[in-house]
């Protein structure tokens, strides 16, 4: 075991009460089952799982090849408030014998149902540690009170969102016993949509139904206002009948009021209506496919505001049952309705739309985090819960550094020679870096980018890094709003009108930012380098080519056609050498690595490059490195070429000072240190006196392109988080 203070396996009891909580618990159960060297799993089934009217859903647990240790019939029929109370009482009577027999080290309890309250109460009174899944969330009806009551009984907490984590801290729960893991069901959701789905749609809705041309409806009673929730259900069915689309209607749960809702369905003839299919239960794997490809989902189930967002399916959330839940932009709320008109209008607004996939509730890596958390539980620690006082503000100030360290970005640098992918922390530390030679064709290049990013994202989970998004730095002119490379440099072939955002976002289920490498270098300096805190500065990259980025009033300047800061193509001589852009006399034609390589080859061809202490191997290509080496060893012609290149760059900087008037110029890239003194000399000789005091410095960042790509992610996401 890792840290639990025992030499024996951890005995885990998972208790499931209904189809909804099993969809969240099943991924954890599979994970536990896959590690028999660490865990023993006991499964207890109770509640509506064992009732025929609700589909006898215990069978799906058996079909998943789990051994059910105990079946407890705990539901008192009646589907009213009194029956719910009696069901809790019956469970409390039966559970002690089960727990005495199983003697688990820890019990995993999910959510906010009345059955779960009975489980948590029994375990707490019998000194069994409780791990509560999905605590800290806010919704409507009695579920809120039950959820928070279970939180106070539980010893450990696995929450799905940062807001839920903060709510738990506000409730004085021990931060060290809270894990922000994401929703376990997302581990299955985010890998599900590409599977064969048409056969599932046809099985449940008919052979003539097409993807995105049907509705899934799932509505439950609101136990704190049963009469009103039944009226809302009536209006919903009226609106669906009028809307005239094929609809899959799932029966409500077993809460008080469900019997009346079923009567409404039958009164309106839903079970026999040609446009409706009414079912008690759909297996979760199939339900995922149905909502992923629906034209719309309607009702008041938490599934609508949580899981369905992973697919961008439009959702209409009715009434107050989920009030307070965090939702993506795919959810349209209808809080109240006196007639069907408002619901019908919402259907017209939402049906058939496709929204961006939302990852509010998870990133698909919850289960590995939960298993690691379970392994870390020390059974030798005192069982007595500790509540953390004073209240939340002090706790947050103590813990924010730790929180920020775990947040990371996936950075991609697409250069002329190499493709680099890195995991970059909030503090600008490169946690891990991957490098490959860049393929020559578009298809090979895209496939390699996807492959490297998928591998890095998987590795990030093992390194305890939560990836917030992907930032891409690439050569050429980029439309950052759309994530498209409009035109590339000659160094990267087949790289015009390339959409980088869509394939990466679809594969990783993460937001993606794309920008030019010069702009990324400026962003890196703004966040991590010498531009930090400055309102206006310019970055010049001296490498294979010459690029740059402009920060004005703390913001990056892109220009009307995304062509701002092409500083390498400032013309400094009307009769200068040809440039790769098609013009001549550009800074890049003098001072880039390509330009120095061109001059080095000329000297070498004339036997004027090599001096004592130098050699070039037979098969070795002459490069800018040889020119710089020759200059250092006293080669006058090499020194003259470097001086000319530095002067051209210096004249470009003078033009920048006169045009933009920044407070700082940062030279970045491998050639920066060779040019800095010449550039400063040119400024002293050529610049107006009013700008001669502007400092020119060499960047101290090792990987500005990667850090800049990461900063696009970290700057945007931390504005929303911190």
UniProtKB/TrEMBL annotation:
InterPro entries linked to this entry: ATPase_NBD, ROK, UDP-GlcNAc_Epase, UDP_GlcNAc_Epimerase_2_dom
Annotated localization: Cytoplasm, Cytosol
Gene Ontology CC annotation, any one: cytosol
Active site per UniProt: 517
Keyword terms: Allosteric enzyme, ATP-binding, Cytoplasm, Hydrolase, Kinase, Metal-binding, Multifunctional enzyme, Nucleotide-binding, Phosphoprotein, Transferase, Zinc
UDP-N-acetylglucosamine 2-epimerase domain: residues covered: 38-375
UniProt-annotated binding residues for an N-acyl-D-mannosamine: 477, 489, 517, 566, 588
EC number: 2.7.1.60, 3.2.1.183
Pathways involved: Amino-sugar metabolism; N-acetylneuraminate biosynthesis
Positions annotated to bind Zn(2+): 569, 579, 581, 586
Example of a GO biological process term: UDP-N-acetylglucosamine metabolic process
GO MF terms, alphabetically ordered: ATP binding; hydrolase activity, hydrolyzing O-glycosyl compounds; metal ion binding; N-acylmannosamine kinase activity; UDP-N-acetylglucosamine 2-epimerase activity
Catalytic activity: an N-acyl-D-mannosamine + ATP = an N-acyl-D-mannosamine 6-phosphate + ADP + H(+); UDP-N-acetyl-alpha-D-glucosamine + H2O = aldehydo-N-acetyl-D-mannosamine + UDP + H(+)
Protein family per UniProt: In the C-terminal section; belongs to the ROK (NagC/XylR) family. In the N-terminal section; belongs to the UDP-N-acetylglucosamine 2-epimerase family.
Assembly and interaction partners: Homodimer. Homotetramer. Homohexamer. The hexameric form exhibits both enzyme activities, whereas the dimeric form only catalyzes the phosphorylation of N-acyl-D-mannosamine.
UniProt xrefs under NCBIfam families: NeuC_NnaA (TIGR03568)
The name this protein goes by in its record: Bifunctional UDP-N-acetylglucosamine 2-epimerase/N-acetylmannosamine kinase
Organism: Callorhinus ursinus
């Amino acid at each position: 075991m890792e840290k639990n203070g025992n030499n024996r396996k951890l005995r885990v009891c998972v208790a499931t009460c209904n189809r909804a909580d099993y969809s969240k618990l099943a991924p954890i159960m599979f994970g536990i089952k896959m590690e028999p060297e660490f865990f023993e799993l006991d499964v207890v089934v109770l509640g509506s799982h064992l009732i025929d009217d609700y589909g006898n859903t215990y069978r799906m647990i058996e079909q998943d090849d789990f051994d059910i240790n105990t079946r407890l019939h705990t539901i008192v029929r009646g589907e009213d408030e009194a029956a719910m109370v009696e069901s809790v009482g019956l469970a409390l009577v039966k559970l002690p014998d089960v727990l005495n027999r199983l003697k688990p080290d820890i019990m995993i309890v999910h959510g906010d149902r009345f059955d779960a309250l009975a489980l948590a109460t029994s375990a707490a009174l019998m000194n069994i540690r409780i791990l509560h899944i999905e605590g800290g969330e806010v919704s409507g009806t009695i579920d809120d009170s039950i959820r928070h009551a279970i939180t106070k009984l539980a010893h450990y907490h696995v929450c799905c969102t940062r807001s839920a984590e903060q709510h738990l801290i506000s409730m004085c729960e021990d931060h060290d016993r809270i894990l922000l893991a994401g929703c376990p069901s997302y581990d299955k959701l985010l890998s599900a949509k590409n599977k064969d789905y048409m056969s599932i749609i046809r099985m449940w809705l008919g052979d003539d139904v097409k993807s995105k041309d049907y509705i899934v409806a799932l509505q439950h009673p609101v136990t704190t206002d049963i009469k009103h929730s039944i009226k809302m259900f009536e209006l919903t069915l009226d609106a669906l009948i009028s809307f005239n689309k094929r609809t899959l209607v799932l029966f409500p749960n077993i809460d008080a009021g469900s019997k009346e809702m079923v009567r409404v369905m039958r009164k309106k003839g839903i079970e026999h209506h040609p446009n409706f299919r009414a079912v008690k239960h759909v297996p979760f794997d199939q339900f995922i496919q149905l909502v992923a490809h629906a034209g719309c989902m309607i009702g008041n189930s938490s599934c609508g505001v949580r899981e369905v967002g992973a697919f961008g399916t439009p959702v209409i959330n009715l009434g107050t049952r989920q009030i307070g839940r965090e939702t993506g932009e795919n959810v349209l709320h209808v809080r109240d309705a006196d007639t069907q008109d408002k619901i019908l209008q919402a259907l017209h607004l939402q049906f058939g739309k496709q929204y961006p996939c939302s990852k509010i509730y998870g990133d698909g890596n919850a289960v590995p985090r939960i298993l690691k958390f379970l392994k870390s539980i020390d059974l030798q620690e005192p069982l007595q819960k500790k509540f953390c006082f004073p209240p939340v503000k002090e706790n947050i100030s103590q813990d924010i550094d730790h929180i920020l360290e775990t947040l990371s970005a996936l950075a991609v640098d697409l250069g002329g020679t190499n493709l680099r992918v890195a995991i970059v922390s909030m503090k600008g530390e490169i946690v891990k870096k991957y490098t490959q030679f860049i393929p020559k064709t578009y298809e090979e290049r895209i496939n390699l980018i996807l492959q490297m990013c998928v591998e890095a994202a998987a590795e990030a989970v093992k390194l305890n890094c939560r990836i917030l998004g992907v930032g891409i730095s690439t050569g050429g002119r980029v439309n950052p709003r759309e994530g498209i490379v409009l035109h590339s440099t000659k160094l990267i072939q087949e790289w015009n009108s390339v959409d980088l955002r869509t394939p990466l976002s679809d594969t990783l289920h993460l937001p993606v930012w794309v920008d030019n490498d010069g702009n990324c270098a400026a962003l890196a300096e703004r966040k991590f380098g010498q531009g930090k805190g400055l309102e206006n500065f310019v970055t010049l990259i001296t490498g294979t080519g010459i690029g740059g980025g402009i920060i004005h009033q703390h913001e990056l300047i892109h220009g009307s056609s995304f062509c701002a800061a092409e500083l390498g193509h400032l013309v400094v001589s009307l009769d200068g050498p040809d440039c790769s852009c098609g013009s001549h006399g550009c800074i890049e034609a003098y001072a880039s690595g390509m330009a120095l390589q061109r001059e080095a080859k000329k000297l070498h061809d004339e036997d004027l490059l090599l001096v004592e202490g130098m050699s070039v191997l037979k098969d070795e290509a002459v490069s800018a490195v040889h020119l710089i080496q020759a200059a250092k060893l006293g080669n006058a012609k090499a020194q003259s070429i470097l001086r000319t290149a530095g002067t051209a760059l210096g004249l470009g900087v003078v033009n920048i000072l006169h045009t933009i008037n920044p407070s700082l110029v940062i030279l970045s890239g491998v050639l920066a240190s060779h040019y800095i003194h010449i550039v400063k000399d040119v400024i002293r000789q050529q610049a107006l006196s009013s700008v001669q005091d502007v400092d020119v410095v060499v960047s101290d960042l090792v990987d500005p392109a990667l850090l800049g790509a990461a900063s696009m992610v970290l700057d945007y996401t931390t504005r929303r988080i911190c």
